[in-house]
């Protein structure tokens, strides 16, 4: 029986990994570090998340068996004392550390919270791993440590190219801690995590989904203001103030789950893996698909001058932190993934159809009481939007 000490079990990737691994293997015991909430203990939160993930993965009947292999320590990666934690009886005999906890805040970090969680948290986990003398350290980073790079990002050669925000910088520096720890490591670097390939559904929508929510609310507000039916086409006249890109890496959560779980079970050899897929979509594709589903005209992506309207100002305020990811010109190398798992692991493509499916699924799942969104999420594409 191998013992893993894991952080981030309540997050999207952490919970997906735990369920996939324990569904496949019964020779692992997982001890996880989790925070309590104002109304739930760390144990209650963990159990609830694992049951939700099992249901999402289509195996609710396995939840009890999986939870028998999961123990919980209440705590926080930032405030924990590695020396005290190393003495916890539950951690004796730990073979592997799997560090997944992070703060995915893409905006400014005035209080330093994001940096503390991502950098100091990793620093504490590395110290703990050294004290426990573990054999392996697995770290979930981000493909966007490549920052402002233009061109190909190589998996095993991370370079400081400057960063778009404190999140990217904190994750880059945290990965350097892992690389210099003296412990054999594997680094996983996902891109923009979105809904699964089969039906577009996601258990916990992040990042990109804020755009879908914003545009839905903006259309609702405009139609209400002008007495229009929101099921009909509406002209918003707004511009995403960013240069369009041909390389936006949407990565389905089931691919992230499949790839990380498979790579985790391979020998550790101090490598990083871009968990990004190899079929990026373009900003224009994304714009066109969203507007086709929502029946929106007058939405553009253009790095030129932006009219100082209230809607444009609102969009910049609420979505501006996402703009760099839709203008990025990074191409993520896949050599290590191909060599380790074979080229067939990358034999999928999101494309326009995949984007349409995930957009519809989001509105159907997360806005069940908004009748006009439900109608459009089920309606066929009527025509192409006009810019």
UniProtKB/TrEMBL annotation:
It holds the Pfam family NAD_binding_4. It comes from the Bacteria. Residues 6-260 form the Thioester reductase (TE) domain. PANTHER family: DTDP-D-GLUCOSE 4,6-DEHYDRATASE-RELATED. This is Male sterility protein.
């Amino acid at each position: 029986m191998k013992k893993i000490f894991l952080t981030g079990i309540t997050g999207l990737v952490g919970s997906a990994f735990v369920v996939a691994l324990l569904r496949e293997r019964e020779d692992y015991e997982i001890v996880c570090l989790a925070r309590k909430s104002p109304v739930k203990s760390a144990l209650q939160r963990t159990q609830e998340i694992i049951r939700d993930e099992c249901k999402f993965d289509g195996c609710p009947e396995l939840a009890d068996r999986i939870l028998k292999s999961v123990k919980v320590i209440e705590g926080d990666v930032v405030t924990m004392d590695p020396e005290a934690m190393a003495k916890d009886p539950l951690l004796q005999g730990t073979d592997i550390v799997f560090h997944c906890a992070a703060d995915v805040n893409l905006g400014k970090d005035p209080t330093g919270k994001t940096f503390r969680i991502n950098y100091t948290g990793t620093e504490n986990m590395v110290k703990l791993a050294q004290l426990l003398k573990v054999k392996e350290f697995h770290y979930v980073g981000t493909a966007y440590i490549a920052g402002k790079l233009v061109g190909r990002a190589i998996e095993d050669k991370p370079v400081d190219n400057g960063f778009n925000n404190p999140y990217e910088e904190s994750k880059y520096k945290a990965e350097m801690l892992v690389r210099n720890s003296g412990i054999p490591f594997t680094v996983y670097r996902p891109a923009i995590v979105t809904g699964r390939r089969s039906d577009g559904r996601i258990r916990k929508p992040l990042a990109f989904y804020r755009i879908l929510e914003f545009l839905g609310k903006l259309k609702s507000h405009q139609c209400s203001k002008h007495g229009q039916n929101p099921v009909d086409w509406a002209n918003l006249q707004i511009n995403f103030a960013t240069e369009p890109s041909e390389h936006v890496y949407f990565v389905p959560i089931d691919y992230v789950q499949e790839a990380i779980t498979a790579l985790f079970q391979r020998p550790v050899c101090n490598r990083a893996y871009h968990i990004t897929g190899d079929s990026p979509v373009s900003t224009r594709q994304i714009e066109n698909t969203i507007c086709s589903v929502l029946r929106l005209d007058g939405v553009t992506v253009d790095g030129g001058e932006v009219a100082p309207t209230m809607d444009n100002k609102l969009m910049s305020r609420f979505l501006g932190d996402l703009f760099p990811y839709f203008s990025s010109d990074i191409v993520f190398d896949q050599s290590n993934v191909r060599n380790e798992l074979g080229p067939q692991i990358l034999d999928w493509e999101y494309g326009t159809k995949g984007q349409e499916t995930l957009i519809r699924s989001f509105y159907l799942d997360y806005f069940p009481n908004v009748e006009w969104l439900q109608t459009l999420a089920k309606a066929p594409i009527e025509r192409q939007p006009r810019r």
